């Protein structure tokens, strides 16, 4: 799809790389190599065959577009990949390749590796947002400002209290995501019907060895149990929602008639092809756009949970792109809002002016104490 | 809405009662009474006034339909409720009622109490499903049967392995729900703009006392931080999806040409107004219907996360009914599938016949070991 | 579910009545009576039996809660309803009742009748909105005001141009809904498997007679073809979105710092339990809440389209409540925004002040011409 | 995103090309060239300047990746595109480029062109499906087979009746899509705030000329009125659902224990990396996967309808990729099911055997007449 008009601005190059063809192929080759290595270690296949498989994977080179064409026809990447790898292997090594595995084992393990790597990227940006917001919240904890409910002036609040609430929402969402990623980044090795047949009874041990090397959790096959994937998806959507909450508020505060805060200026960003004077809340736009797309992606993944028997028809296939897209959106939103958090321009004069205009005093209650209490919870 | 054609079969009377008018009013009155009691204990108001408030709440009686009309006009329950309660109170007691609180404090705390009670009902049914499925999985762990992928015969599996996977999906979903409910069932006390103004600086202590009595977690206001509510919603949808997975499989196994398993017969259920001979998978229908409705409800809640400032316009109002509906759907689905789990009729002859027809042997790999491994994890 | 806190404010009593138990039962009885009458007219059953059925339907009286309990157990309304009606009929009349029909015929025809009646209610309110907005748009077509993009001041526009765009969105959505309702409000008569068996080859003629009397379109069975229902649902969601667009803008214009327009004051509405001075945009809140709920309901209906064979397991059952809820939301939103349109308070001084502050002149281009062009299209 | 594992199989190369970078750039350049040409024709700019702009657009060449980077930074394609085009133009031609237009005018008009081209592709495949299904339906109209409801044997139906219902659902969905595309494929020319300022009062005429050349409908600006886009999206989802209905049924009929029909064999498709004997319903998988993804995409577009004022913050940006994805999914699904329709293998012996086993006779009612009636309606 065209990156020119739309898709591109919404994510980061690093997150795109996690889910691109090269990464997918790299993980798939690692799966095959480590499957053979683990089987050799458990005595299921010969060590020499495992080394031959590893060597074949190491030198495997192909134009991804060609492989994609073949995968599209076959309905799965593993079929052409295994076929091509086999072509370079002798008899017993050839038979040892992909032994006991099925296409879904490859695809799910690749996805698990991508989940782990994608989360690491998000974590780095989460670690930017929290301290930046902490600092802003603390500095403005006792700054009287107008609180607003239902888009109407309500009662005074400490300006930093709103910021502390953004931070709490984002940090809690990050903690949930961490928990769900830990659960979902799990080796998949079940074979054609999820029984670990053809592994000489060593399936559990083989899977454990692979998990160790690939940096994944070990455990029984989960081919038809997609709840953990769905939980990562929902955790991402909640994170995107928490970032969207911050973006919504910043964009409202940045309205010309309000003027209490605005995004930092970035050279080349936020302009208009028709109006040179504008300073658009481009970061907020990225985050708010993400929040419109995420819920539907989650709904699709949830709809696919009742997969038929040992591998569903349609549901499993729909899940991967949706999860990848959620990571792309989360990365774009988090990157954008981290920059906003780090450079948010706050106009104390406008804050004071708007509060004075409201004419309802300046009793901000326990705002500062709540800011401190929020900071004390959910430490990063 | 009419219960005749559609809504009614999808839930349980007990869950309907958790979210009905009487329960809502009971929790709202408890909020007001405990708010006054806690303020008296902290010296914010006089003990006598708190007693007067408590007495007023205790004797408050009204036709809910009348109150609902007034609430519909005012846009919130708290406005007419507080007005009516005040009418029965003298001067200082009247001023002490609802002191420092806002409509959303009432509504969110009521919702937190309903979440806690609703989960308790689900937990009771979760405790029926898991052992029933454990028993079936163990009994049939080594029964060779045909495994199916993409709705086609694949390779043999132990019949109990599929059941063990159902159980794992459901139990893990229950654990996630437990975690999220514990987080979300939290007192809300922030006042009009979430600053705990008007509580003489005792807001945190007042909230903690109320939480204790109402059986909720304590903590700072979360009025504009709806992530925990969204997380309960998504956990419910994942549970509904896990139950739907079991329902999908049971309904496929119960097809006339398959015949490997079917729902227990229930007098008066599963019939047809046109075909007396039919035995419809009515329990599965309830669960599969729920799985079609839940994802969209979740999407709606996620879409509302970027609430404007101190109280959003529309998002917060949309969240409550959607969350209640998710609990209703989960209750209906869980109740139905618990009955299916407890009474599932398994036809070993049909299982053997279908496997023989497939003609691919009976190597079920490590099926029995995986069943044991799944049972060992995620103990209830 | 409780009407106290949540469901009630979002719709109108008239729309609730379209989908309540009494209406459902009334339509179901009309189906049975007209089925018998049409069969008698076509010579399929005796005229005396048809009269006996009609008489039985006319005097049928029951506590809907009791019937709902029975329907919940049976999984369909038709089973207990037909059983109870039969109990009051003699031999041949008893056999003539519900002849050739199945539960879904009753349910779908009832739904078709409700769609027709629900739309009539919406149409009445659509006919309030369009002229009210036309008038406002025309009056303010050439009033220079600040246009805003991405929540930032952009260039001047005629104030009425924004209003004319609201009107166009709403009117076009109404036209689409009209078209889809005409298609979907269709008789369903197919019998158990959709073949019109048991009707002596007169099925098409019987259905046509029933359609005529019930005010529905005639045509072949559509039991497993739910696209027309989905199209009504999506048309409703687009209407809700168009109303939400207007509500979003009004709520932004009504912000204290903007002040260009606000909802009419309604005694008892829009207040706050904590802040007597507030004037909340309660109508906009209803509309914006609806817009958060509608997309998920649509998604659920779309997900159910691939119904299994002659009647799906779960999808069909999920569709009815979602469609009814969409009508309820549309009614609430339309009623609220019709009142806003009729009473919108526009502050020309604020409009002029905000434009002057922006300092970008007052060239409103072809605003007035576009208002006229928009009004000329999509006439009601 | 990686095409290796997932995205690629779900669509057609032709549809990918409609939405790729080259097409996007081509349409954007056509917009700028035709904008200048139309303005020259109306006397708004000089003819020589328009020719210079056209020449500049004709020779414009750039690596799309570079332009995408710039567009990502600027937040819109038009900014870097116009800047680069201007660099090659002299004074007055430079000022005449993009005159009176804004980024959204470019983006929306490009989208309108893509909608028109994308639909033409779908139409070609729709024209394959309908006659193929007509033929099958007619041939098997009177073949007695078992009808199934709720996944249970119900009563006999003509085998072709089910096929005729598929065809009706798909054809009606195609008709709706045609209607909505005609409405949505519309020129967008409103300028920065939708007033057609800066066009010397000739905006309407300029837009009409552009529409004529670009093959779009003419009309007033619709920048903040996204209902027509949403209607195309929902029409696509209903089409995807109708195709999914056919896919669901085919996959059920193709189960090994049923065997009444199956997809045509395609060399290299439907295999398994672990089970050489399998014949997977790969076409159905594509269609059923699409049906899981489409509803959420629609929900996202519907959620964005209440765009803020003259250009929303987030909603508009989320809409384009979702609509493009819906077209991609529809193309993949339609291509797959057209092939299934053209080559569906029907096993009359299995049909007869399953019916006999059910033991409920062979009265198929008016099946053949209904097939004829369905064929007579909704002619392509």
What is this structure, in a nutshell?
4 copies of one chain form a homotetramer. Chain A is mainly alpha-helical.
Structure description:
With 380 residues, chain A is mainly alpha-helical. Chain A has a single domain (13-379), classed as Fumarase C, Chain A, domain 2 (Up-down Bundle), CATH 1.20.200. Chain A has 14 helices and 4 strands. The first copy, chain A, has helices spanning 13-18, 21-41, 47-59, 64-74, 78-87, 91-96, 103-139, 159-184, 203-214, 227-253, 282-303, 315-343, 348-358, 367-376, and strands at 144-149, 152-158, 261-262, 345-346. In chain A, the strands form 2 sheets. The first copy, chain A, has a two-stranded antiparallel sheet with strand order 1-2. A two-stranded antiparallel ribbon of chain A has the order 3-4. In chain A, a hairpin with a 2-residue loop joins strand 1 and strand 2. The first copy, chain A, is elongated, with a radius of gyration of 25 Å. The interface between A and D is large, with 85 and 85 residues.
Largest interface (CB < 8 Å):
A-D, 85 and 85 residues
Instruction: Kindly report the CATH topology of chain A.
Output: Fumarase C, Chain A, domain 2
Portion in helices of chain A:
55-70%
Question: What is the number of independent domains of chain A?
Answer: 1
Number of strands of chain A: 4
Count every helix of chain A, treating DSSP H or I runs of 4 or more residues as helices: 14
What oligomeric arrangement do these chains adopt? Answer: homotetramer
Q: How would you name the CATH homologous superfamily of chain A?
A: Fumarase/aspartase (Central domain)
Shape of chain A: elongated
Q: What gyration radius of chain A follows from the Cα positions, in whole Å?
A: 25 Å
């Amino acid at each position: 799809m065209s990156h020119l008009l739309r898709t591109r601005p919404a994510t980061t190059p690093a997150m795109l790389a996690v889910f691109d063809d090269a990464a997918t192929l790299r993980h798939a080759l690692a799966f095959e190599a480590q499957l053979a290595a683990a089987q050799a270690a458990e005595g299921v296949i010969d060590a020499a065959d495992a080394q031959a498989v590893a060597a074949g994977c190491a030198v495997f080179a192909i134009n991804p577009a060609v492989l994609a064409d073949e995968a599209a026809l076959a309905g799965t990447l593993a079929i052409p990949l295994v076929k091509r790898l086999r072509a370079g292997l002798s008899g017993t090594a050839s038979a040892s390749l992909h032994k006991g595995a099925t296409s879904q084992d490859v695809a799910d393990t690749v996805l698990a590796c991508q989940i782990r790597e994608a989360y690491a990227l998000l974590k780095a940006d989460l670690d930017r947002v929290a301290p930046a917001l902490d600092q802003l919240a603390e500095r403005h904890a006792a700054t009287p400002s107008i609180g607003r409910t239902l888009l109407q002036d309500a009662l005074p609040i400490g300006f930093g209290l709103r910021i502390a609430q953004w931070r709490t929402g984002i940090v809690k969402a990050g903690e949930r995501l961490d928990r769900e990623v830990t659960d979902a980044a799990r080796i998949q090795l079940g074979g054609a019907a999820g029984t670990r047949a053809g592994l000489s009874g060593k399936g559990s041990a083989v899977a454990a060895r692979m998990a160790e090397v690939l940096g994944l959790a070990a455990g029984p096959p989960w081919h038809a149990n997609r709840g953990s994937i769905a939980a990562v998806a929902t955790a991402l959507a909640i994170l995107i929602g928490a970032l969207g909450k911050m973006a919504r508020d910043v964009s409202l505060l940045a309205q010309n008639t309000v003027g209490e805060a605005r995004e930092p200026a970035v050279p080349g960003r936020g302009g208009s092809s028709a109006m040179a004077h504008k300073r658009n809340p481009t970061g907020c736009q990225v985050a708010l756009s993400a929040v419109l797309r995420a819920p539907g992606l989650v709904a699709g993944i949830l709809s696919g949970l009742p997969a038929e028997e040992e591998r569903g028809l349609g549901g499993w296939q729909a899940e991967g792109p949706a999860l990848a897209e959620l990571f792309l959106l989360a990365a774009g939103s988090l990157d954008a809002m981290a920059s906003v958090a780090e450079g948010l321009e706050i106009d104390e004069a406008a804050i004071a002016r708007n509060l004075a205009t409201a004419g309802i005093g300046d009793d901000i209650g326990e705002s500062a104490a709540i800011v401190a209490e929020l900071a004390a919870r959910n430490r990063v």
